[in-house]
Amino acid sequence: MSCPFIQSGNLNPAVLPLDWLLGTWQSDEPGEGSFPSISPFRYTETLHFSHVGQPIINFMFNAFHAESKKPLHRECGFIRLQPGSNKVAFIIAQNSGLVEIEEGELTGQQLTLHSTALARTSFAKEPYVQQISRHIHMKPDGRLEQTVSMALEGQPLTQHLHVTYRRTD
After folding, report:
1. How far apart are the C-alpha atoms of 125 and 127, rounded to whole Å?
2. Residue-level pLDDT at 1
3. DSSP 8-state code for residue 52
4. C-beta separation of 96 from 132 below 8 A
5. How far apart are CA 147 and CA 164, in angstroms?
6. How does pLDDT run across 2-49, given as a tens digit for each residue?
7. Mean pLDDT for each 10-residue chunk of the chain (169 residues)?
8. Cis peptide before 127, with omega less than 30 degrees from 0?
9. Which class for 13: exposed (0-12), middle (13-18), buried (19 or more C-beta within 10 A)?
10. If 0-12 CB within 10 Å is exposed, 13-18 middle and 19+ buried, where does residue 42 land?
11. In angstroms, rounded to a whole number, what is the distance separating the alpha carbons of residues 162 and 143?
12. pTM (predicted TM-score)
């Protein structure tokens, strides 16, 4: 499934500073996942960033096990910029039943975000996520890099995921 991609000529001026994200990105080699409570794993991921002319960017992230190709984690949501500032917010729904708001700053082609609100379904799997941080930036070679850290009940904020992507469209 892909999201519609409208050329940046139709991009709402409010999100012009995020135009470098637009399009489809594929992990150029498997990403690395780890956490103290799980075995390390490798995954591939596709990112879709699109817009429909509103002052938001739509996104969908789809991760798959690197060897078995089994679907893993999925996230979808919206990115908003506070007008007249570099403050940015990700509004995210995950297939695990977790919903989050991450807020932070946009500096050039770099996003640094930290969760400000987390909610989950009443039957979500324990241990519960307590905090998430995310760093996304454009590397000088044109690849996109993402690092995600999380804290669970009884576990401090620890790097969980690291992956780089190449633009495919």
Report:
1. 6
2. 37
3. S
4. no
5. 9
6. 444 444 458 999 999 999 999 999 999 999 999 998 899 999 999 999
7. 50 95 97 92 97 96 96 97 96 96 98 98 91 98 98 94 96
8. yes
9. exposed
10. middle
11. 13
12. 0.91
Largest CA distance in the chain: 48
User: What b/e sequence results for 46-78 when a residue is b if at least 16 CB atoms lie within 10 Å of its CB, and e otherwise?
Assistant: bbbbbbeeeebbbbbbbbbebeeeeebbebbbe
Helix (H, G, I), strand (E, B) or coil at 96: coil
Distance CA 124, CA 127 (A): 9
Token duo for residue 11? 């991009």
Amino acid in position 44: T
Q: How far apart are CA 131 and CA 16, in angstroms?
A: 29
Which neighbouring-strand residues pair with 167?
Answer: 25
Distance CA 135, CA 47 (A): 15
Report the length, in residues, of the chain.
169
